[in-house]
Amino acid sequence: MTGLLLAHAFFQTFLSARHDAAGVERFRQVLETANDISAERAPSNIVMGGETALLRSRLQAARARTDRALAREAGIVPAKPLQETATLLGRARALVDQAAAQPVPRREAIQQAIEAQFAAYDGYRAVITAEAALLMRTDSGLAAPVQFALILCTLRDDGGRLGSVVVPALITHEAVSERDISARDRLAGRMAIQWELLDLGANLTDRGPGLFALRANAEAAFFGDGQPLVARVIEEGTHAERYTESIETFNDRYVRTLAPLEIWRNSFLDGLLSHYRQRERHAFELLWVVSAVMLAVVGLIAGMVLLVHMRVLRPLLQASEAVVGLVHDRPVTLPFRHHGGRELQPLFEALAILRDKLQERAVQTRHLKHLAETDELTQLLNRRALETLAESVMEAETPEKQVFLILLDIDHFKAINDRYGHGEGDRVLVAVAGALRAQIRPGDLVARVGGEEFAVLVRTRHLIDALSLAHRLHQAVGDLDVRNADAGRIAVTASFGLAAGKGLTWRQFMAKADVALYAAKRAGRNTVRVAGADGAGPEHAA
């Protein structure tokens, strides 16, 4: 058993390693798509500065590369943020094309197009964040590498945004604005912080061959060439001098300073993926070794396991099933005989005793429940049982199934007792109960709620349906043929009060029906009255 558990553990380790490797590969793909979205800004900026067939061709190639990347993500990443990214990207492209089509580019149109491109990338951040969170939840050991990769990705995008700060001024040959300078300072400060965060993961830098050298190249290219290039353009634009760089030459030079960042990031992710692929292969090899050993061990002990199963485990499983069945009050069909050792016989004998005792207790419980909920004389529900059941019925009320309460009181019942005796009075109560029970539908509730008072709770669509039932009950009580000891007929009538229960508590419901009942009594008894919104109104006296 221990060996099987060990093999299972190695199998789970292999599955975990495979899952992690697949997750890292998917994460790398998502970051590549993010880079494609970011990289599309460079040819877009150049085209807005002056469109030619060659520049348009480069832009179309960049857009096609981005579209292929997004299409590749379909079905792999969440659909909603992917669709939102595509929508934002389409809007950005339209603004770029509009700005490029202007004979004299307007700075506002260029700035608007650039910001729309930023928004498209920001929309894709939801996909990046979701994939990163999934990886870190799957394997806590991936938290640091994933965060490192995210910083590299953000650093590359912020670098591109930093270059875009001066694009409107270069295209329109206007001075650099205070807004542009503030944006440059903000982005430069953020990138400095990101670079410091990368220093915290210095051990990650050495994870792959040459990563430390790639880091040095990226630092030298961007901080040594890229940022100074932007600073020089801003300096020229601030003093309203003539720009020494065209948008095209600036873009080409600046993109080259960002390339080492991309190379560093891709090499880091390749090394990370290689590490997890190696883990997967190692786990697979260990799984095969352990499985081979376990097959040999299982072959040797198979006979012993079978014997133990037949003599011990199988009887215990039968006993376990019997206990579960008894706990859930199900009939236990398993035979209480077994083929195990004699030591298990007392267990099965105890189960037989437990079964008999539980059956006896169940019978007693059902009997006590019946006594607690049933009126002893009429065998109808008693008042407490009706209240309990009525609450659930009222909670389930719908416009199609409204709840109505009919209260009825036997007219002059004290006179019946005084004239014929309590025994005959009890016979009248039983007869009335039988008449009520014969008229109601399955699902309706009828109860004795007092000495000679009964209640019928019904669910129906309209008041007229409940009123019709009240009249049928009234007629059934009036038609009773109850004979006294001298074979004389005891005249039995009842007064009825009907109320609707919409929006009421049970206490209010009873009080409303009681008002209608007493209205029937005041009207001379032997009639039906319906409770109105604020009292009882006359309704079809019988």
UniProtKB/TrEMBL annotation:
CDD domains according to UniProt: GGDEF (cd01949)
Positions of the GGDEF domain: 401-533
Keyword Transmembrane helix: yes
Key words, A-Z: Membrane, Transmembrane, Transmembrane helix
Gene3D superfamilies, per the entry: 3.30.70.270
PROSITE patterns reported in the protein's UniProt record: GGDEF
EC number(s) stated in the UniProt entry for this protein: 2.7.7.65
Protein name (database record): diguanylate cyclase
Transmembrane regions: 286-308
Lineage: Bacteria, Pseudomonadati, Pseudomonadota, Alphaproteobacteria, Acetobacterales
The organism of origin for this protein: Gluconacetobacter dulcium
Cited PANTHER family: DIGUANYLATE CYCLASE DGCM-RELATED, REGULATORY COMPONENTS OF SENSORY TRANSDUCTION SYSTEM
Entry annotated with the keyword Transcription regulation: no
Reaction catalyzed: 2 GTP = 3',3'-c-di-GMP + 2 diphosphate
MF terms (GO), sorted A to Z: diguanylate cyclase activity
InterPro entries, A to Z: Diguanylate_Cyclase (IPR050469), GGDEF_dom (IPR000160), Nucleotide_cyclase (IPR029787), Rev_trsase/Diguanyl_cyclase (IPR043128)
